[in-house]
Fold this protein.
Amino acid sequence: MRPFASVRARATLAATAVVALALAAAGVALLLTLRASLVDQADGQAESAARRVAAQLAANVPYGDLDLDEDNPVQVVDDDGRLVAVSDDLERISGTGVDGVRPDRGSGKNDEDNDKNDEDEEGDADSEGLEPGDIDDDVRLSGGSATVDGDTEDYRFARVTVNTEGKGELTVHAGAPLTAEESAVTTALTAMLIGLPLLLAVIAAVTWLVTRRALRPVDAIRAEMAAITASEDLARRVPEPDTRDEIARLARTTNETLAALQASVERQRRFVADASHELRSPIASLRTQLEVGAAHPELLDVPGAVEDTVRLQELAADLLLLARLDAGEKPGRSRVDLAALAQEELSQRPADRIAVTAKLESVEVAGSRGQLARVLGNLVANAQRHARSRVAVTTRRDGAWALLEVADDGDGVPPAERERIFERFVRLDDARSRDEGGAGLGLAIARDVATRHGGTLTVTESPDGGALFTLRLPSDAQAPHRGAGDRATSHNGAAD
């Protein structure tokens, strides 16, 4: 099981870790840049010192009269690799390639001999392409260490070559200390080691406080949701912060979900209450007739009992279909020709009361044949119930849509009631009688089926002044369009 860690703690830890990595990288880069800058500065000082000594040698200053830096190491080496001059107090040196700290007195020449103008030596001096008195522009830099007057330090050494008259080609090694570089780097590193943890602590504290403030609305939403769950009061809503960020959108979405859930629960409660009420009447009537028949067989109303049983069966079937639709049952994907479906459905309706005319254009849709037949049957039954003399059924194509229209010449549906009639168990005032109308589920079932098929069901005014119900469904693009002509038929039908 993973250990619990709050969003605030994770955010603080992540922010601190990211800042720590960034500061560490910046600190390393700063130290490297500082060290490189100071090393370059030491290289410049070493080169300057080496060129000062080389200038004296180019001017034929004797070795003993050379002005050498007493605080920093200086070596002068002749063309044969012999140390001919060295700064005072030099006790040890490394990094120049010459380890000697005292002039080589065994060279067989003293300063005066070296001052002579010897032609052979001049020829050797010209071997490198430098004229007498020239100082090489190239400088070679290296690192090392030296002990001067008992103090051992790291140095940067510059190597410069000079051609002299009488002494030949000489090499000057001069060093500059790295004390300033080491001190600056150490100071910067110490400051970082002390300052970075303090800075990280401040960043962590600020992140913790900012995250706490940012998540405060989330805590309020969570607390309110817990209270709603405990009280089962879906009328309550979570607080919405006065911001336009993700938390505000979360609160609004949560309230929208609660509102939809409340509406669904209330609708379900009304459905159960209305279903119980609708079932109670036929069951009570059937029970009364059976009890009377049991006591007085001659008084048993068999047709009435059968009528109540059929009505109860139809109501149970409607309730079962609504339950399946509410459960999200998806319709089939078989091809259904609306014209053929309408002709078949109308031909099966008993001839009783209201004539039904049909103008049918073949158009196919994808869906459940049984559910679409139920929609057509409910619409025709509703139209026959309210029509004065005739009902018209039409199927046609409208672009990418298939339309099925059922019109009557009755009183129509008032505009204010055109949405309410699709609610469950809703009957308008002139259709309240259970003897004349159903339970108020037919149109609700029809609209639910239309929605499940990706379509719509609306009601407007018909050309005859009655109601015009329009079922609009996506036409099956893969289905062949059979029959360009219209088929007109006439049927007699009775209301359910």
User: Anything to note?
Assistant: Residues 179-231 form the longest helix (53 residues). Residues 107-127, 430-436, 478-488 have pLDDT under 50 and may be disordered.
